[in-house]
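Input record (one chain):
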Amino acid sequence: MARITLDNLAHSYLPNPKSEDDFALKELNHDWEDGAAYALLGSSGCGKSTLLNIISGLLNPSQGRILFDGQDMTQATTAERNIAQVFQFPVVYDTMTVRDNLAFPLRNRGEDPAYVAARVQEIAAMIGMEATLDHKARGLTADAKQKISLGRGMVRKDVNALLFDEPLTVIDPHMKWELRTQLKKLHHEFGHTMIYVTHDQTEALTFADKVVVMYDGRVVQIGTPEELFERPAHTFVGYFIGSPGMNVIPAQIEGRRAIVHGTEMDLADGYGPVNGKTAIGIRPEFARLSSDTGLPVKVRRVEDVGRHKLVRAELFGQEINIVAGEDDRIGPDMTRVWFDPAHVNVYADDWRVAPQGRAA
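The corresponding structure, as predicted from the sequence alone:
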């Protein structure tokens, strides 16, 4: 296990980058805490895998350093960093049995055969492959092979970090939850530093202690699932986390009021001068239809999704989403929408603005 420090780190795939736009990974300074479980979350092309490959040593950064427990490892190999990495698509030895695939990292380090046998049996139970231990990998399905890759990544207890690059992409859906549960169990049992790349918010939020949200090569927020939901630091976080995502509505901010198309609404806190492209952000869960309170709204359709209703509405020509309870009445008199002031966030140029007297 190790504390991993990213110091002034950035990377461009161009030989002579001229501007920030030329960088696939924009400047980043961060400490990955020893023994924590992180998820790198973002859409395709946002820089997640680039960052992971720099941490593992598969890619040298264009600028900056990476340190393990204070030691500069920027030019060190993956082996020297003592990293285990599991890739998006299975990497196995087809001519070996499942047992030999799982045992390979331990045998390669000269571990005692009895320990190897016991540890392989333990990992096989975790990934549900005890019955196929003596089968050749060649004849197995893609998801079975990926489980072998996961198992081989988890088999060593002495690694500094375990890195996972979208490891459940080819896994059968009903197995995904079980494998995420096993990864969490492994983390709690051995305390490895784990970094898990995914574009799936469910995977990220159920796996990680802290989620690192990336957008356009930049880390826009690092926080717990609750922090990402309640206080998105960037409008992209609000959009990407949640189903449906946060409503972002252009507004003018004046002290404790937001003015939306000339209509005022109260805010829970006061704000100083807010410049730039200003907006309010409100989760659909904290919006309510009303017959007499709030902003004028037109209900376009109602989707019953079982535990609640999803209301698709129009606010001054902009589509917004509202989550209503399963038993809530939605009648023709419901022509207004009320936003809970305690859950309204204010944004300027897409970044969250802290209320006066409060930290961001």
